Amino acid sequence: MAAAGPFFSPPRHFFHYRPATLRALVDAAGFEVLAVKRPWLPGELSFSLLQLAGVRATIPLMSLRANSWRARMIKFAFVITLLLDLPVTALLAVLHAGGIVRIIARRRG
User: Are strands 31-37 and 102-107 parallel, antiparallel or unpaired?
Assistant: First the structure.
């Protein structure tokens, strides 16, 4: 299951599961878990912080030209938070503790 958009974004994400819980759910659904990965996703923390600050539609804002004062300020905030985001999320990836959990599985049978 993949979520579109930022990562800590209610109402899309009501629960944050640990990898062991996801593994158990996938197993209970009749799948064999082949791998559990925690990939590095630069921008994960920055997008989450913008979401928590109440900024909506952050991905389109990042990809479009900043032609308003608000859009320029949001892009500036993203760049500033990215200075913290990159080393933190890289460290989390090395420790296999990033916010994204990817389960690779196949149906039993």
Answer: antiparallel
